[in-house]
Amino acid sequence: MLRLPLRRNPAPQVELPPRCRWEWVPVGPMRRERVLVCPPLDGRASSARRLVIYFLHGAGHSPASFFADLPMERLLPLAEHACLAFVEGGRRWYLDSPVDGHSQGERAFLAALRAVESRHAVGGHRDNRAICGFSMGGFGAMYLAARHPDLFASASSILGPLDIEPLCPDYPGLRALLGDDPNTWRAHNPAAHVAALRDVRLLVTTGDEAWDRPLGRRFVEACRAQGIPAAYRQQPGAHDVGFVAAQLESHLAFHLNPGPAWRIRRARADDADALARNCFTTPAPDDVARHLEWSLTEVARGRRVHLVVDMGEAVANGELSIMDDRAEIANLVVEPSLQGRGLGTALIHALTDEASARGIPTLEIGVRSDDTRVRALYEREGFAAYRETTVPMNGQPTRVTYLRKAVPSRVSHVGGE
């Protein structure tokens, strides 16, 4: 069944906060459109980052929807030093249609960007620009960022269909703009052009019951396959306005507070689905959940440490079994497309710090004797082989080499929640 974007009546009547106002901007010959602009309070962008965040609405919505249907008025105090610009998208999907010459969404957006930044002395450089959208606007945010990576430091999508080729040619809104040719759809598909996003911070959020979920997930997988650390959050919910309202604050914070693309934190019970999806694909998801439940029980008893690498969701896993005078690293796994990016090494360092903070003098790890790549990783980190043994693994006797190293006392710096 074909799913349509979330909708409401266009151009809702809403009383805007005093900070915000409609502005007419030229977007083409003899043509103007309204942009809803919330300038920085007291003009303080000039003394801060001159940051401007562009917000793109979904089909059937308008810039005013961010205040009529979404909690943007409540969120404005979080962005008092930034300029927020809510751009009109109509039903153009923020792209220039090769089929309908009158539908020039990309051209209109770029014209609005130039006008807003000229009038309010914001932006001016990619480090001072961000873009965020929901549904059709989520597509638009990633499409425009891929088309113009020199313009944006960060881009985020809520419920955006970011791999549109599976929708070809039956999705009516896009068919009207792109026609029936699969090559045309591919040329306008964000998932096919992720290489351009290498230097853009990315966040994709979707609902576990949202029709766009597999499309957003494939976009993220395409990014990670190219070594681009796109953050991905799959939250409870469907493709509706309520879901957007619940996620908008986290996306605003993502753009306001630039930071590393990933962090190491302690595992939580709600990491089970992501770990099963990204790290432990052989065991059944229920088995992964049961192991995590047991592991967290051992953590509470002080007999274990369980860490994950968080990239919007858990994408790597590392555990530490604590004995009287030693600790053993276990289940160190990195999502395959992210291997070789330093996540495993970072987990080894974090687990070593955890052992050090507990005054444990010896750290050890067992690896398959024929896995020279993993063994070399540990040897680079100061581990040395000290014994070999045979253990059952996947029902087969397997030769395993144990390595260990001495651990100096240090203080743990792993984050919590």
Tell me the number of strands.
15
Number of domains: 2
Separation of the first and last Cα atoms:
39 Å
**Secondary-structure-derived class:** alpha/beta
Q: Give start-end ranges of low-pLDDT stretches.
A: 44-48
CATH fourth-tier homologous superfamily of the largest domain: Alpha/Beta hydrolase fold, catalytic domain
Order of helices and strands: EEEHHEHEHEHHEHEHEHHEEEHEHEE
- What is the percent of helical residues? 25-40%
CATH fold descriptor of the largest domain: Rossmann fold
**Percentage of residues in strands:** 25-35%
Mind summarizing the main beta sheet? 8 strands, mixed
User: What is the tally of helical segments?
Assistant: 12
CATH class of the largest domain: Alpha Beta
Biggest β-sheet: strands ordered side by side in the sheet: 1-2-4-3-5-6-7-8
Shape: elongated
CATH architecture of the largest domain: 3-Layer(aba) Sandwich
**What do the pLDDT scores average to?**
90
Account of the 3D structure:
This protein is α/β, with parallel strands linked by helices and 417 residues long. It has two domains: 21-256, Alpha/Beta hydrolase fold, catalytic domain (Rossmann fold), CATH 3.40.50; 263-406, 3-Layer(aba) Sandwich (Aminopeptidase), CATH 3.40.630.30. Helix content is 30%, strand content 25%. The protein has twelve helices and 15 strands. It has helices spanning 65-68, 72-75, 105-120, 136-147, 172-178, 182-187, 213-225, 241-256, 272-278, 285-300, 343-357, 372-380, and strands at 21-28, 31-38, 52-56, 83-87, 129-134, 154-158, 201-207, 231-235, 263-266, 304-310, 314-322, 327-334, 362-368, 384-393, 396-406. The strands form two sheets. It has an eight-stranded mixed β-sheet, with helices on both faces. A seven-stranded mixed β-sheet has the order 9-10-11-12-13-15-14, sandwiched between helices. Helix 9 crosses helix 10. The radius of gyration is 24 Å and the shape is elongated.
